[in-house]
Amino acid sequence: MVFSSLYFLFLYLPIVLLLYYITPLKWRNLLLLVANLIFYAWGEPVYILIMFVSIAIDYTHGMLVEHNKRRGNDRGARLAVASSVIFNLALLFFFKYWDFIAGSLDAIGLTFMPKLGLSLPIGISFYTFQTMSYTIDVYRGDAKVQRNIINFGTFVTLFPQLIAGPIIKYKDLGDQIDYRTHSPEQFASGVQIFVVGLAKKVLLANNIGKLWDTILALPTGELTTAGAWLGVVAFAFQLYFDFSGYSDMAVGLGRMLGFEFMRNFNYPYISKSITEFWRRWHISLGTWFREYLYIPLGGNRVSKPRLFFNLLVVWAATGIWHGASWNFLIWGLYFAALLILEKAFLGRVLQKLPAVFQHLYTLVLVLVSWAIFAVEDFGHMGAYLSAMFGFGSGLSNAQVRYYFASYLPTLLICAVAATPLAAGVWKKLPRRVMQLVLPVLLLAGLVFSTAYLVDATYNPFLYFRF
C-alpha cells in the first residue's frame, strides 16, 4: 500500500486515525503495531515474517547489550552489537544482493552461486538501517534499552516511514515511542504537510515522469542532445517530487500521530556545490552514513589520503544501498570523486566564482549523475550520456521541440516548486490572508490529487525498488 492510493487515503488512513484517537493512551502503541503490520502485509503478506524475526533479533540484542554494559562486560556488549549488525546486513544481502552477485559471477563463468529469484521486500533498505541503529545507540549510551517489545515493534514497523523513510534513528524516536503529546495544532500541521506532499507526488512527479518515460523509451538512434537533457531534467524533477513528496507525507502522518520526524529534503537543486547538495538531498540517509560509517572510520579528523579513502568507502556504500546494480555503484563512486575534488581544492575555487556559475556547475553534474542513476543498462547509459554531450543524432529535432512545448508549463511549475521562492512569497502574506487562503489551497490539492488518482493509471513510486 502506498500513501498516494485511494485505498490508503479513503479507507486505511481514516480508520487508523479514528481508532487511534478513541483508544486509551496506554494501548495506542499496540494499536499502531497492528495497523503497521496490516499496512505492510497489504502488499507483501509473506515478508511480514521478516518483520517478526527482525523485531525479535534486535530486541533481544538490545537487551544483551544493556545487560553486558551493566555488568561491565564491554567485550560482551560489543559482540552483541556486532551480532546484531551482522544479522541485519546478512538479511539485506540475502534479499537484495544475492541475485545481483550471482548474476555478476555467472557473467564471468562462475556458477557456484545459484540465482534464487527472490522478490525484494518493500522498504528493506530503510527499515534495516533503522533497526541496526538501535543496538548501536544503546551501546553508545545515546538511547535507553527498550524493554517493552510492543513499543520496540512499533518503532520497527511504524507505517508512516516504514517503506521509504525518512530513516529514523532509534535515539531520535525512542522517547516519542514511549511518550508523545498530541494537539489540534500538531494534527493540523500534519494534515497540511501531508497534502502538500501528496500534491508534489501526484500532480508534479507523476506528470513530469511521463516525459522522462517517453524520452527514455526512444531508440538510441533517435536521441538528440536537447532530447537527452530534456529527459534527464524531467527525471530530476520526477525523482525529487516523488521522493520528497513521499517524505513530506511521512512527516505529516507522523505529526497526525504525535511523532516528529526529521525533514528529508531542503531544496537541493539550489545548491552551489556537490557538498552542499548532499547536505540538502535525502538528509536522513546522509546523516545515518555519517554517524554510523563515516565518523567510525575517522571522519575528517585524519590525514588527507585517509579522508579520501573514507569518502570512497562511504559513497560506494551509499551507491550500492540504492540498488543491486552496477550503475548505482558507479553513481556512488562518481559522487565520491566529486566530493574528493571539492575537499582537495575545487571547493575553494568554487567559492571565488559568481553564484550563477556555482549553481550551474552543481546542476550540470547532478543531472549527469541522474542519467547514471536512472539507466541501468550499460549500453543504453553510454548512448544516453553520449547524446547529452553532443554525440547523439543531432542537436534537436521537431519531436523534442514538441515535447518541450507540451510540457513547458509543467517544467516551469516544477522549477519554481523546487526552490524556496513560493514558500518565501507565502511567508510574506498577511496572517489573515494566509488563514483564508490555506484551507482553500489544501482542499484544492486534495481534490485535484484525488481526481488524478481516480482517472489515471500512471502512479509509480520510484523508491519502492530501494
UniProtKB/TrEMBL annotation:
EC number: 2.3.-.-
A Pfam family hit: MBOAT
InterPro entries: Ac/AlaTfrase_AlgI/DltB (IPR024194), AlgI (IPR028362), MB_O-acyltransferase (IPR051085), MBOAT_fam (IPR004299)
Enzyme type, top EC level: transferase
One example GO MF annotation: acyltransferase activity
Family the UniProt entry places it in: Belongs to the membrane-bound acyltransferase family.
Full protein name: MBOAT family O-acyltransferase
Organism of provenance: Flavonifractor hominis
